[in-house]
Specification:
With about 425 residues, the chain is an alpha/beta fold. The chain has 12 helices and 14 strands. α6 runs antiparallel to α7.
């Protein structure tokens, strides 16, 4: 029972709230290819040449100690004789010390974070949950460490498309805050709760617009929402994230780093690397979404919503795949429903077959068959028939009375304007 309670505790802390806290279109179509590299017999490196992965760790919060562990795992992952000299990680880390930037490649000798010398040490604290700070880091990396291709890892707490829960956020008007990533408590402390400034996903998309990353991996809870993916569609070819809570340790970076630099099959390699760590322990749901499909997909989903609006708004969600149940976080989170379960329930057989074909072209999902949920505290089984690994919000009437004004804020999102707005 103690072990189970620890599982719940670890899962809970990776998510925040007021209670406690993108098949890929690239220059080569092999990103999602099913071929498998044979590293033991091939004389050609299985890794991409001249790729830089930017690692943005907003860890000035309750996850600060995990950042130390994860950087150590990254260092271990980069110690790889077959990795090209021109591949590197550039790590921005803001934890309980002053922010700094590190560069790691196959020749880096450091084994732990304390042995790693920063290439840039900030003289004063910054708000790592500011989109402008993220944009400044990306600009710094491109200016100082140019590469043929880039990936981006976003590491912190998160809450998907939802409104920020930080009333004192000095950077945004309280009435317009919504959809948030990252927590910076502005106290250089590992606070017990995940409280502080948070980054609006719309602001993030604006800062990263046109960057065209090979991938963005968001190592944080409940970030694989159709709403977030649509907002970020012009920033990356592929969005990789979980629709559910993830364990506090996040990805196992020794294997994840090596997957991020793979020349072929990169997205699948990354999904498999993440799932392998938790398949038999905490469980996991993780997916990759091809953003090149999103504009066409939104136009299609607009027709689906128009035809089935009444069924959607009156949906009985009691037996559906739901990653966050409304009310389980004292109504600070609405239902996080898997899109596939929703469509399975409202579409007829022919309509569903069409939807499934379009969705399978865009999304690749991996799951362990279960995951541990902090609220309610339980091991939740995954019905594969209901799971595509991406959530969608439905503006149910029950949310209208909530103080967070979920529906009002939701209808301001780009996805809702494209799909739910009535002409």
């Amino acid at each position: 029972m103690k072990m189970l309670n620890n599982l719940f505790r670890i899962v809970q802390h990776k998510m925040y709230g007021t209670v406690a806290a993108m098949f890929l279109m690239v220059a080569t179509c092999s990103f999602f290819a099913c071929s498998k590299d044979d590293e033991s017999t091939s004389f050609v490196s299985p890794y991409a040449e001249n790729r830089t992965v930017m690692v943005y760790m907003a860890a000035e919060n309750s996850l600060s100690s995990n950042a130390i562990t994860d950087v150590r795992e990254m260092l271990e992952g980069m110690r790889n004789d077959t990795l090209p000299e021109s591949d590197r990680l550039v790590i921005f880390l803001d934890d309980t010390s002053m922010p700094r930037i590190y560069v790691v490649d196959k020749n880096t000798q450091a084994v732990t974070l304390s042995e790693l010398k920063p290439v840039l040490q900030y003289d004063e604290d910054v708000n790592s949950s500011s989109a402008k700070q993220l944009g400044a880091f990306v600009d710094y990396v491109k200016a100082n460490y140019p590469a043929e291709s880039y990936g981006l890892l976003l590491w912190s707490h998160a809450s998907g498309w939802l409104p920020s829960n930080f009333i004192g956020d000095q950077h945004q008007d309280a009435s317009s805050r919504r959809r948030s990533f990252g927590v910076d408590n502005q106290r250089n402390s590992a606070s017990k709760y995940a409280e502080g400034h948070q980054m609006n996903i719309e602001d993030m998309a604006s800062e990263l617009n046109g960057e065209n990353f090979d991938f963005i991996l968001i190592d944080a809870c409940v970030m694989q929402n159709i709403e977030v993916a649509y907002e970020l569609r012009h920033t990356t070819k592929c969005l990789i994230a979980s629709p559910a809570e993830i364990p506090e340790p996040g990805a196992q970076y020794k294997s994840m780093v090596r997957a991020m630099f793979k020349k072929n099959n990169t997205a699948n390699e990354m999904l498999n690397a993440y799932l392998k760590e938790y398949r038999n322990s905490y469980g996991l749901v993780i997916s990759a979404l091809n953003t090149a499909e999103m504009d066409d997909y939104a136009a299609y989903m607009k027709s689906v919503v128009a035809a089935h609006r009444s069924e959607l708004l009156s949906l009985d969600t009691s037996s559906m795949l739901n990653y966050i149940h409304y009310g389980s976080w004292t109504k600070d989170y609405p239902d996080f429903l898997d899109m596939q379960g929703v469509m399975l329930k409202v579409l007829n057989a022919d309509e569903y077959a069409q939807w499934k074909a379009k969705t399978d072209k865009m999304i690749t999902c991996r799951h362990a068959g279960f995951w541990y949920s902090a609220y309610p505290k339980s091991k939740v089984s995954i019905d594969d028939a209901q799971c595509c690994g991406v959530t969608m919000h439905i503006p149910f009437e029950k949310y209208n009375a909530n103080s967070w004004a979920f529906n009002e804020k939701y209808l301001e999102t780009s996805w809702a304007k494209a799909v739910w707005r009535e002409e």
